[in-house]
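Risk register update: the risk of archive-format incompatibility is retired. Evidence:
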Amino acid sequence: MNKICTLVAIAALAVVAAGGVHAQQPPPAANTAAAPYVLTMGDLMNTLVQPRHAKLGLAGRAGNWPLAAYALVELRQVFAGIKKAQPKFGGLPVPELIDAAVGPPLDAVEAAIKQQDANKFAAAYDRLTQGCNGCHQSVDHPFVVIKPPEASAFPDQDFSPGR
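Archived output:
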């Protein structure tokens, strides 16, 4: 019987020496949380700015001044958010770029909407669009060219006034 006890004791020591004790310790914490996706400048422009720019143009062209005013507020809010989310792009100061490129045109669009003047709106909207393209050129993205929408990309939205 002593031989059996000795063999059991040796086996137990071998298990301990081989790391069997780790089974009693909690496993190391697994980092299963995925890293959050950080929107790039392209993501922000394509998903937030471009649709609002298009909706603003469509609403103004239709003479739907309440919708145009709403789209303008939404566009301004997006630019304000981008200034905070992306303070630098390619080493350049995003807030200053946005203010210089679209600040005055957005003010002109706002004035045209308040006056409900379709001609002033068209001219101001063109200046806004040119401001966007000027900004793209200044950040070495001249291949990104924005233009007024020719047709609605939003078939489920009515842009006509009076609703």
